[in-house]
Write a structure and sequence with these properties.
Length: 262
């Protein structure tokens, strides 16, 4: 027997998601089904799928799955798109508080721009050729001369599955070029999509904090990704411990649809 599923497609700087209103808990979660829906040839096509659920004490809960169908860690752009979705559903007017896999988040929906408060970050590990930090998702950050000439997929995949991060569940991998003070260009290989995406919200957040650790930038940091520009603000509350981190940028509805699943 086949079922019809109503969905809405959103994108935040080109990181695209299938959003489902699952407040009635009817979506039949399965890795195969989610991977199928995210497939760009056989399904709707997306970098991930997000369920918006009820959550006591919050406006809603965000449950994020990567395109491979597995539940992911925090997704910054997905968080911004979920806030836009909740706003479109009439769940809140301007300010919201919701819960995700990494804890509580606050956000503001102001015209097309969503300002999302990220979880505090501590434990930025500076290595000789890269930094590693967790901004809700794990991120490897490395500075390069020209991101346009970087083999993002080949190098990203090697690092994600390599001896250091492979056994730890892998990592997202960001290649960063300094444009000028407080201005970066970033390209990201995303774990769970297993490809370069147009933008990664937790990734650009990691790159902004990494730039603070290397160059003492205070922000706001503007980050150009292949899908558009984002802004990150933050405060360092102790050496290399960050709070009041905000990821700011557009999140847009692309289309509504329905899909048959058997
Ligand atoms: N696109 C996301 C990152 C999603 C998490 C990641 N793929 C993982 O599970 O490691 C973002 O915008 O932060």
């Amino acid at each position: 027997m086949s079922t019809t599923i109503q969905f809405v497609k959103y994108q935040g700087t080109g990181n695209d998601f299938i959003l489902l209103d699952d407040r009635n808990e009817t979506f039949p979660v399965s890795k195969e089904l989610i991977a199928h829906l995210c497939h760009r040839r056989f399904g709707i096509g997306a970098d991930g799928l997000i369920l918006l659920k009820n959550a006591e004490g919050y406006d809603f809960r965000m449950v994020y799955f990567n395109a491979d169908g597995a539940e992911g860690s925090m997704c910054g752009n997905g968080g911004r798109c979920t806030v836009r979705f909740a706003h479109d559903l009439g769940i809140f007017a301007e300010n919201t508080r919701f819960i995700a896999v990494d804890g509580a988040h606050e956000a503001v929906a102001d015209s097309e721009v969503i300002k999302l408060k990220m979880s505090p970050v501590k434990g930025l590990q500076k290595q000789e050729s890269y930094d590693f930090l967790n901004t809700g998702s794990p991120h490897y950050v490395t500075f390069v001369d020209e991101v346009a000439k970087t083999e993002v997929v080949t190098l990203g995949r090697t690092i994600r599955y390599g001896d250091i991060f492979g056994p730890l569940g892998g990592t997202n991998v960001n290649f960063v070029e300094v444009v000028s003070d407080n201005h970066l260009k970033v390209r990201t290989y995303e774990r769970g999509v297993e490809d370069e995406t147009y933008s990664c919200g937790t990734g650009v957040t990691a790159c902004a904090l990494s730039s603070h650790a290397h160059f003492g930038w205070q922000g706001p940091v503007t980050i150009d990704t292949p899908g558009g520009s984002l802004c990150v603000t933050f405060q360092e509350i102790a050496p290399e411990v960050y709070d009041s981190i905000y990821l700011i940028g557009p999140a847009k509805r692309v289309f509504n649809g329905e899909v048959q699943v058997s």
